[in-house]
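JOB MANIFEST
job_type = single_chain_structure
chain_count = 1
residues = 148
[input]
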Amino acid sequence: MVRQFIFMASIYALASSAHSATIRSSSGATAHVADRAAGPFRCLIEKLEHVGYRIQFMGGYRRHGSRRHSLHPAGLALDINQYARNVTRPRMPRNEVAIANSCGLVAGAQWSSRDSGHFQLGGWPGKRFAKRNHRHHGMRRRFVRMQR
């Protein structure tokens, strides 16, 4: 818990010292993100639009109102066409995770507690979700062996 707090504090410090960049889709939707995250997010936007996905609105940097452990206050996360957790209109393409990963981003859709439409800079894939997913797969393997 303490390690996680220190890690998140260091991310916020890095991002707050960085300048903000504005990213824009071809439809005119804009969002503010940290400078160091602008390149990967531009890559994501270009690839989504290349497969025909229309971006109507985006949410990047948010100073308050975000959940605990969110990277939005640091400008390192972006929501695209997201109305609620795991609810996007229009729906994200099926290869959303592959597109995000190819740009060096983590997609919320790859977490065990899915969050389609949420993307964040790699390096913090949401350990809480990864641990839960890892334990689940280990238990499943044991259960399958017991059935044989």
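[summary]
Residues 127-147 form the longest helix (21 residues).
Strands lie at 20-24, 30-34, 58-59, 77-80, 82-84, 87-88, 105-107, 118-121.
exit_status = 0
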